[in-house]
Amino acid sequence: MKKYKFFANVIEEEKWLNEQLLAGYKCTNISIWGFYTFEQTYEKYVMRLDYQDYLSSHRFEEYKEIYEEFGWMHVKGSRFGSIHHWQKISDNRDNMFSDRQSKSNYYKRLMNYSLTFAIFFLVISFIVYDGNPLIVKELYLTQGLWEMEGMFFWKAFLFETPFVLLRLIPILILFVSSIQFFMSYMQYKKIKEELSR
Questions:
Q1: Where are the alpha helices (DSSP H) in the chain?
Q2: Per-residue burial over 146-160, b = 16 or more CB atoms within 10 Å of its CB, e = otherwise
Q3: pLDDT for residue 39
């Protein structure tokens, strides 16, 4: 079974993936375009996501070996700074980040990832919107649209609205990644305070 889903929030992606696995599936492939391939199974699987910065090929192999020793299967992720998808048959040790220091490091990496994502889409937004993404009139590119009247206005307005929505995608992703950064920061701060006690 294949499903298409786009996520800008890794916490939501992990939650959705675990819902699919709970329904009696295991994930066999995840494409870069957002296609998730599942296979029906009688065993109960669990999935965890982890973000890693750039790793040398040696460090990447070590990283994979450590988790594979605990029964995790690497589904997706590269050594060039990406989110890694790990899956295993569920048991009593389903949490990859069992101690507080590991969780703190995880949220710090997630925070850096979402900040990078937010900055990238902030730059894209300024390029797409010529430095002013908040003026709705300028999102509609049809010459003289706002001077049109009656049926001509509504036809041109409705025709161009889907294109305007496409132009708004960078600002929406910027907004979602900013929220993810804030949530990761709050979790990171909470764990750091617990560790300092």
A1: 10-22, 57-69, 100-128, 150-167, 169-196
A2: eeeeeeeeeebeeee
A3: 93
Local structure of residue 42 (DSSP, 8 states): S
Report the range of poorest mean pLDDT among 36-45, 92-101, 143-152, 163-172: 92-101
The CA distance from 194 to 14, in Å, is 25
Q: What is the share, in percent, of the chain residues with pLDDT greater than 90? A: 22
Characterize 50-72 residue by residue with b for buried, 16 or more Cβ atoms within 10 angstroms of its Cβ, and e for exposed. bbbeebeeeebeebbeebeeeeb
Residue 3: strand pairing partners: 36
Question: Quick one: angle between helices 150-167 and 169-196, nearest 10?
Answer: 40
- Structure-block tokens of residue 65: 């070996």
Tell me how far apart the alpha carbons of residues 136 and 127 are, in angstroms, rounded to a whole number: 16
Q: Are 34 and 85 a contacting pair, CB within 8 Å? A: no
